[in-house]
Amino acid sequence: MEIDAWVWWLIGAVGLGIPLVLTAMPEFGMLSAGAVAGAVVAALGGGVVAQVLVFAAVSVALIAVVRPIAARNRGGRPGLATGIDALKGRQALVVERVDGRGGRIKLAGEIWSARALDSDTAFEPGQQVDVVEIDGATAVVM
User: How far apart are CA 76 and CA 89, in angstroms?
Assistant: First the structure.
């Protein structure tokens, strides 16, 4: 019993799909798609050279086009700031005088202990300040 070439290409596509699932490396999926293209050429009666050329061309084209797009989209999204990271950069209202030793601010609807970033600077009640960082339970403002 002789197995047609297109069946071998499909077996190769499945064989390349297994590492894709196990390692989550998209390149294996692109090579698998190239093998499916090779199977189509074989089913249409193309020779071995045409099958290999189509496999190589489709695989290289997918890797050259899809991979940079995926890399750009994966790294381009900023993370969602939560917790104290979401408070950095926000404005707050001084409730009690804030200087280098301490004070109180109203930040995100809550009263926080605060201190000035520059120990020589003081902020009076009613002033708006910017939160630079959160140090423990104390907001560092400027």
Answer: 21
